[in-house]
Design goal:
- The chain is of the alpha+beta class.
- It folds into 2 domains: 4-48 and 134-244, 60s Ribosomal Protein L30, Chain: A, CATH 3.30.1330.100; 55-131, Alpha-Beta Complex (CofE-like fold).
- It contains 6 helices and 12 strands.
- The protein has helices at residues 20-30, 45-51, 65-74, 78-86, 137-152, 206-218, and strands at residues 4-7, 40-44, 55-57, 88-95, 98-103, 108-110, 129-131, 157-166, 169-180, 186-187, 203-204, 227-231.
- Strands 1-12-2-8-9 form a 5-stranded mixed sheet. Strands 4-5-6 form a 3-stranded antiparallel sheet. Strands 3-7 form a two-stranded antiparallel sheet.
- Helix 1 crosses helix 5 (137-152) and helix 3 packs across helix 4 (78-86).
- It is globular, with a radius of gyration of 19 Å.
- It starts with a strand and ends in a 24-residue tail after the last strand.
């Protein structure tokens, strides 16, 4: 088995209403990659959010009283806190510099996934812009996948990833927040190991595993690599969804 991850070249700075499928197909050509069936395209959340107009100018945000109170505890901008509240189902933890929430998409994350880094609006560069997560990342991935299939005729998978922290471990890793055309998890219960033992509890988060690998290629700072082409994914492609990756609250032992 060989798994190959290749950064796509010549991805421009993405603006609202840019057609990502057209941009990706051109970038594949510029990178001399001929798209094949069963390939996967992994996109950083930021370019999807930007294309969908999820950028917010903080000058337009009026914080609520609750946002002001949480901002004092977290020592953060109350306008950003207000956006976190709007993007979340529940605030779980508050500490200086960080607020842990259950996002509207269902997963637990820091600061509702709202990002300051590598974000600039179309106007005065001194204005403060932040970027929200896509409203429906599964649908975003599905739209891009269908458009690429229409252009190229190839049946591929598309995944959107973001960087999140993890309970009990330091450091952020890439995780999947939306996908189309590939499985989110593989249930290996009933499979045999090398010694004939039947697996009883093994369910593998293959989308998150691939997201972490792609994140290594993308980098986290000024690398300018928001898209990765993947070939050799070791499982059959098929329909998956973000909800398969989210542990039900009743089974969540870390809250």
């Amino acid at each position: 088995m060989s798994l190959t991850l290749s950064p796509l070249l010549s991805i421009p700075l993405i603006r609202q209403d840019n057609n990502l499928a057209d941009i990706l197909v051109k970038s594949l050509q510029d990178t001399n990659i001929e798209l094949k069936d069963d390939d996967i395209i992994v996109l950083a959340q930021k370019i999807v959010s930007k294309s969908e107009g999820r950028m917010v100018n903080l000058a337009t945000v009026t914080p609520s009283q609750r946002a002001i109170e949480l901002a004092q505890k977290a020592e953060k901008d109350p306008r950003v806190i207000e956006l976190m509240l709007q993007e979340s189902n529940e605030v779980l933890r508050v500490r200086v510099g960080t607020i842990i929430v259950e996002h509207k998409l269902g997963f637990v994350c820091a600061n509702a996934g709202i990002d300051h880094s590598n974000v600039m609006g179309n106007g005065d560069k001194n204005e403060e812009f932040v970027l929200l997560l896509p409203e429906n990342p599964d649908q975003s991935a599905r739209n891009i996948r269908e458009q690429i299939k229409h252009i190229t005729g190839k049946n591929i998978g598309v995944m959107i990833i973001d960087s999140h922290g993890r309970a009990w471990r330091n450091g952020t890793v890439g995780i999947c927040i939306g996908l189309s055309g590939l499985p989110a998890v593989i249930d290996e219960r009933g499979w045999k190991d090398l010694f004939g033992y039947t697996l009883k509890v093994t369910v593998v988060g293959v989308a998150d595993e691939l997201a972490a690998a792609a994140s290594l290629v993308m980098g986290q700072a000024a690398e300018g690599i928001p898209v990765v082409h993947v070939r050799g994914f070791p499982y059959p492609l098929g329909e998956g969804s973000l909800r398969e990756l989210i542990r039900p609250k009743g089974q969540d032992m870390f809250r």
